[in-house]
Write a structure and sequence with these properties.
about 725 residues, alpha/beta, 10-stranded mixed sheet, two-stranded antiparallel ribbon
């Protein structure tokens, strides 16, 4: 009897444990079951919400808990869109985003007003509000694109930028209509709205990055960092509401503000995506499904008519906008599918507009019934429109993403053997493990999931059981760090009589292409700058070598200043280290500033045309004095010096002054020393590289790097 009393038999469920269990089962089962039917899991969660909601089997109410979690999920979607956008691409495509934003706002507004006036026979104010609902959209399909690795595609960037434009304009229309109803639309209204939005934008876009950099520099605790980011999202959303616009705009701008502080390869980004996709976003989708009232579809012809007209109008307008964007920008059909799929789903702003309009009472009927700005039929029609447009959007976006991802993966399979990347990270100090792993994940190509190796050398002649155990713990820490970014790190524990021999032996045995070394622990910059260990490795290994000294977390670096010596382009390893520097910008979003001789700059500019990143290029021809560079370097800049092994092609005798130069000009900056790769390339290419007269610089570089750059263009 006690057991029966515990079991809840009445509906809807009120036991919080049981309610949460039901939702978790749905979140778990929907993707598994619908995946077999090739139905996007996003759509499955919406359908599940309709089934268990108050208009379905009434298992759960859309109560405050569902609304709270769903609101967090909606803000999460917008935040992720801003956080994952490629800022360099976003800036380059700002005019294209504006073009799409105006297409996807003006076309639904014009057609929507005409349809509402002449087909649905609504008043002008109702027609304008209804048209603003058609103009807005929600990035429902965006979380799904991450699975296909296309979130940085140019079409996605343009669609996300256009979303911000059209949603802001649509929500401003909503604010003006409500103000008109309240009799507040006057000069004072416009001045107040303009000033509040400008203040809000300044706080989020300029102060949030400063606050974020300050916090992430000082607090490395994983939980604290995640909670801080979440707090910033909700603070930005609240400030947006205070300014008179919807919270989703604040969440999106917060993502843009923190974009460069949270690299795509970082553990923090992995945690943000994991929690959002596992909990918050599914709650939002289930909550949207709970709004669906299929009974209204059966009992009321007016609702059927309104829902059909709204759905056809919204979908047609968004398709026309996507088609015009494709034709205007010469995009592919699959890129058009991405744009249409991302822009067709109606949810967030639509819900906000319809609920606000529904609650605006214009008067009463003779029977005492309220006359609403948006009536019952529009409310139910909007819910049906949300369900159908979300269904269409997820299928179309999935089709486009699959095709684009498939075409890129086929190319990568053809080039895999030629561009295989193996990065070795020798570690011995537990305090530097995290920074070395984070740096290695930043320079690696996106598709390299199994090419990272952590190595610890135990000396045969002096090792003890305690030292063996310590070595294993350090390697375990490195594996855990890599796992937090979804990367499999291979552990290598080697016993040797000499550390240098041990490392160089592993480099040869495993065909290592890149070697990441931590700067020796001596705090002072001395004549023995690199330390005997690093000097020995450089003398005995020909792999591209990075010597990294961290003063602050890599994620908080604003800009990377790269100083390149004369004739660096003649080094065999030139395209290989340059690939890694390009990846730093691609994976972190940080700006690059190159100082190099004119001949080298010509090559860099040619590469920049084909594989664009946010970079600046300045002519510089001396290695003996960095005063000109130091004048432009700030405390949050990272210095990258491209050196050369002694007596190699680009070696300069003034490179011996590097310790003094760093100590004099960059005493408080993080820095990376790069020593180019010397071997590991076919004899045919070596002949071309070692005989500069055979090919002009650009052609020579293309001969070596063509496949590599095509690879990292797709993998970054």
């Amino acid at each position: 009897m006690v057991f029966l009393n515990i079991i809840e038999t009445s509906l809807p469920l009120t036991n919080p444990v049981l309610k949460f269990l039901v939702i978790l089962i749905i979140i778990l089962a929907a993707p598994i079951l619908l995946g077999k039917l090739k139905i996007p899991h996003i759509l499955g969660l919406i359908i599940a919400g309709a089934i268990i909601g108050p208009n379905g089997f009434n298992l759960l109410l859309r109560d405050s808990g569902i609304i709270l979690s769903g609101t967090a999920g909606l803000l999460y979607i917008m935040f992720l869109a801003g956080l994952e956008i490629d800022m360099a691409e976003f800036k380059r495509n700002s005019s294209k985003s504006f073009l799409f934003g105006m297409y996807t706002f003006l076309i639904p507004m014009i057609i929507g007003i005409l349809v509402s006036l002449y087909i649905l026979d609504f008043s002008m104010i109702t027609s304008v509000l209804l048209a603003s609902m058609f103009a807005s959209h929600t990035l429902i399909a965006y979380p799904m694109l991450g699975k296909f690795g296309v979130t940085k595609n140019r079409a996605v960037n343009i669609a996300v930028g256009g979303t911000m434009i059209t949603d802001i304009l649509a929500l401003l229309v909503l604010a003006v209509i409500i103000g008109m109803h309240n009799g507040e639309v006057n000069t004072q209204f416009w001045i107040k709205l303009t000033i509040s939005i400008l203040i809000f934008g300044f706080i989020v876009l300029y102060l949030f990055p400063i606050i974020g950099r300050w916090f992430l520099k000082r607090y490395q605790d994983k939980v604290s960092q995640y909670i801080f980011v979440l707090a910033m999202v909700f603070l930005g959303s609240f400030l947006a509401e205070v300014a008179g616009v919807e919270a989703i705009i604040g969440a999106f701008l917060t993502g843009l503000a923190l974009n460069r502080l949270i690299p795509s390869t970082s553990p923090l980004m992995n945690r943000i995506e994991f929690v959002g996709n596992a909990i918050f976003i599914p709650f939002f989708l289930i909550g949207v499904g709970m709004l669906v009232n299929y009974k209204a579809f059966i009992s009321d012809f007016e609702t059927i008519k309104v829902a059909a007209v709204m759905t056809i109008t919204a979908t047609s307008c968004k398709y026309i906008a996507a088609w015009l964007t494709q034709k205007s920008l010469n995009f592919s059909i699959d890129e058009r599918r991405l744009i249409f799929g991302l822009s067709n789903a109606q949810a967030a702003a639509t819900l906000a507009a319809v609920l606000i309009g529904y609650n605006v009472i214009l008067g009463e009927t003779p029977d005492g019934e309220p006359i609403r700005l948006l009536g019952e039929s529009i409310l139910n029609g909007a819910i049906i429109m949300i369900l159908i447009t979300c269904t269409i959007a997820t299928f179309v976006a999935q089709k486009g993403a699959q095709n684009i991802s498939l075409s890129e993966s086929q190319y990568l399979e053809r080039e895999e053997n030629e561009t295989e990347e193996r990065i070795l990270i020798p570690i011995s100090n537990p305090d530097t493990v995290e920074e070395l792993i984070n740096f290695s994940t930043l320079i690696k190509s996106k598709n390299n999931k199994h090419g990272l190796y952590a190595l610890n050398i135990v000396l045969n002649n002096t090792s003890t059981a305690v030292e063996n155990q310590r070595a294993k713990k350090i390697l375990e820490k490195a594996v855990d760090m890599a796992a937090s970014t979804d990367i499999f790190l291979q552990r290598l524990l080697r016993y040797d009589l000499n550390i240098v021999n041990g490392i160089t032996g592993v480099v040869k045995e495993n065909n290592i292409t890149d070697l990441v070394l931590g700067f020796h622990s001596e705090k002072a910059i001395s004549e023995n700058f690199l330390g005997k260990l690093t000097d020995g490795i450089l003398s005995n290994s020909d792999a591209t070598t990075f010597v990294y000294k961290s003063v602050q977390p890599m994620a908080t670096i604003k800009r990377h200043v790269i100083v390149i010596s004369a004739f660096a382009e003649n080094e065999i390893g030139f395209p290989f280290w340059l690939l890694k520097v390009w990846n730093i910008s691609r994976n972190s979003g940080a700006k690059l500033l190159f100082y190099a001789p004119n001949r080298t700059l010509e090559i860099l500019l040619e590469i920049q045309k084909k594989h664009q990143i946010e970079a600046e290029f300045k002519s510089y021809n001396t290695w003996s004095n960095f005063s000109e560079i130091a004048a432009e370097v700030s405390v949050n800049d990272n210095i990258i010096l491209v050196l050369s092994r002694e007596n190699k092609t680009s070696y300069d005798k003034d490179m011996k002054k590097t310790p003094d130069l760093i100590g004099t000009y960059f005493p408080v900056n993080s820095f990376i020393l790069i020593y180019p790769r010397q071997t590991g390339i076919s004899e045919e290419v070596l002949m071309g590289l070692n005989n500069p007269s055979l090919l002009p610089p650009i052609e020579k570089l293309d001969k070596v790097a063509k496949d590599i750059f095509n690879y990292f263009k797709r993998s970054s």
